[in-house]
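User: Batch of two.

Assistant: Item 1 of 2:
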Amino acid sequence: MALKLIRASRTLTTRAARSAAVPFPRLLTTQALQVEDSFFKGAVVSQQGDLEVHWSSGHVDHIDSSWASHQCCCSGCLQAGSGQRVLVPPDNLIDDTLVGVTYDQDHLYLEWANHSHATTLAVQDLERSLAQCSVPRVCPQAAHTLRQHDFTAINTDEFALLQWLDSLARDGAALVNAAPKTVPTSFNGQEADEEGYDYGVISLANQISQPQPTIYGHTFDVRTTETPINIAYSNVALDLHQDLVYYESPPGLQFLQAIEYPTSVQGGESILMDGFVVAERLRTSYPDAFTTLTQIPMVFEKVHYERALPVHLVSKKPLIRLNDEQEIVDVVWAPPFEGVLPLMAPSESRKYFQAYRTFASLIRESNDLLVVHRLDEGQVLCFNNRRMFHGRRAFELQDGAVRHLKGVYVNIDEFASRHAALGHRYGTFQHGMVYGNGQ
C-alpha cells in the first residue's frame, strides 16, 4: 500500500489517553512517523459498503467494516487510563452493514443499519495502523567499531541514555566506559545486597527495566573454575554463539563488565559478529541452503542435573525464522548447546547438514564482519544477544591473576519498549527497527 502519512505537527498519544480524553504529556511528539506531509481529509461509505478514507495527498484507502468495528476507541469499548478493551470478542465485533460516517479532525463515527452502537475510530489509530503497511525495515548494518558511551552520563542524562540505546538498536553492540565495580543503591533506586551496593551492570540494566533472571541467577560471573557448569567458566576459546537459546525466549541484551582483567592476562579478547547480516549473506549467496535452514528445525538443550539447581531445558526451532514478508526476524546459532535431533529421512538429513555446513563455513569466513575488543577494567561490553553472535579468544592466567567479568541480561521486549518510548519523546524514533524480538 503506497501510503503517505503522517502530519509531523500531530502529537501522538496512547489509546488509553485518548479514551480518557486527557493528553499524554511529553510523549510521543515526533516527526519520525512522517512519510509525506499528508493528513486526514474525510471519509465516506463506498458503494461496496466499506469505509473509504481520503487523505490530503489524494490517496484513498478502503477499510473493511469488520476491521473498523474491532478498532472502536469509545469509552464503552476501551477503559480510560489503561486503554485496555472492556468489550472483547465476540461482543465488540459488529456483523452489520455500514450505512453512515461522520467525522471531525480527530475521530470518525460509524453508523450501522441494525446496531445502535456507533463505532468511534481515532484518526491517529488509522494513521499508525496504515503506516505499518508502508514503513520499510531498518536493515542491520555490520558495525566495524563499537561506539563508546559514559556510564555516569547514561545513569544521569536521559538523552545520553537514548544515545546508548540507539547504538544497541542500530549497531547491535556498544561499549560503556568508566563503570564502577559497585554503586550505592540510591544511585538507581533498586534493591541492594546486604552492603547497600549494586554492581555497575545492574545499574545499566535498571535504566532499561531490570535484570532478567535465568538459571544462572539475576547476574552471573564469568571466571575460571575447576569444575565449570558452563564452558564460559574456563579459559578455553569460545566460538561465536548466542546465549541460552534453549529458552523459548532467550535473553535479549547482555552486559559484561570487566571487574578484574589485569594486563598480565594473555588473550581473552571478546569477539562479535552480526548474525542478521551473515544470514542475509547466506540468502544472497546460497538461497537453497538459506531456505532449508528456515524450514527444518534444530534442537537446543541444557540438561544438567549435577548442579545446585538442576535444569532440563529443551527448545526446538529453526536457525533462521522469517515473517510473512520473508524478512529475517530471528537467527539462532549456538553449536555448544545443540541437542539430539529427531531422526530424518536420509535425503532430508543430507540436505539439512549441507545447509548447516554452508552457514557454519560462511560465519567462519566472514572476517570482515568480526569485531574484536579486549575489555579494560571498568568497561562494559553491551550487545544484543538475539542478533549478535559473540565469543572470546583463549587466555592464560599467570601469577595468580584473575579474569572476572560480571554479567547481566535484559529482556529484549523491554529494551525495544524503552528505546521506542524515549525515541518518540525526543523525536528520533525510526519505525522498522530490527531488535531481534521476532517482529
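Item 2 of 2:
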Amino acid sequence: NLFIMAKKKKRKMTENTAPTTTAQAGQDNDLTSADYYFDSYSHFGIHEEMLKDRVRTLTYRRAIEENPHLFKDKVVLDVGCGTGILSMFAARAGARHVYAIDCSSIIEQAKQIVADNNLSEVITMIRGKVEEIVLPVDSVDIIISEWMGYALLYESMFPSVIFARDKWLVKDGLMLPDRVILMASAIEDSEYKSEKLDFWDNVYGFDMSCIKKIATFEPLVDVVHPKQVVSDYSEILDINCNTCKKEDLSFQAPFVLRSKRDDYIHAIVLHFDTVFGTSHTNVSFSTAPDCEYTHWKQTVFYLPTVLTVKEGEVLSGVIECKPNQQNPRDLDFVINFEFKGEIHKEKGSARYKLR
C-alpha cells in the first residue's frame, strides 16, 4: 500500500469540557466526547506513542535544554503536561519552578515520575482544566505546551494555551513553540483510493457505494510517501503563538498548488511546521511527507474528482476550517477548488469532517 494505515489517537485538553474516569464511563451511557477525550489520556499507550516520537520529543528537548539562559531562575507553565516530560526538561534547564497542568488521571503517574526523578521541589503538578484551576503564582515567565493535533488544530487544545497566555504570561514572556505553519500539497493516490474507496462499489456482488460517499469526505490521518506529492507546498495558515486569538483558528485561506510533473491529483494533504524562534540556534520540525516520520503523520482530503494535470499547471482554491458546532474538538472543512488544465478543467466544492 502507498499509505501505512494507523489508528487515530486522541490529543489533549480544552475549555467547556469535563473529565471522567474509566469507572464513571461504565456507569454513564450518555458520555460526551469530552469524557472520552480526557479518559483516553488516562491510558499510558497514547503517552508512549508521543514519547517514542523522537522528532517531537527531541526537538522540544533541544528547544529547552540547549537554551538554559532562557530558563534559568524562570517560572514555567506546562499546559497539557501528560507524563511531565517537558516539565522535567525545563527543570533540568534551570527553571526556578514549573507548574504542570493536565486534566486526565495520567497526572497521578506524572507526580510519581517527578518524585522518582527527585524533582518534586521544582515541579508542581495540578490536575484540572486550564480555565478553572488556580495557580499559586500571579504570573509565569514561559509557557511550554505540545498542543498540536492532526491537521494542526484537531482536538482544539490551543484555545486553552491562549487562555493561559492571556491570564498568566508576563509581558515579553516566552511561548514554546512560538510559531506554527499549516501547509497544503496535492498528491497522486490511485492505488490506495481504489483499494479503500472503490471497494464499496461492489462488495461480493452488492452495491455499498453509499458508504464510499461517506468515507470519501472523512479525512484520513496516514503516512504519505514523498513520491506521491505532485505539487509544491502552499502556506495555509501562519500562527504567531504570542499574539493570535481564538477567533483566528477558524479561517478561510487561499491555496495555489503548482504541479511539478505530468500526473493525476486525487487529494489535498495538510501538514504543519513547528518553530521555536526564541532558541539561540534554529530549532524546528516539520510533519511534511518528505520529512522524518512523526505520530501526526499527514491529513488527506480526497477530492470528489480525479484531476489530470501537466507540469506547471495550477490547482487553486480556498480552504475553510472551523470547529464543529456539536463537538468543537472535531473540525469542519470546506475545500473550494478550481483547475484549468490543458487536458482537464474542473471546478468544485467538498465538505469534510475530521473526527
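The mean pLDDT is 89.
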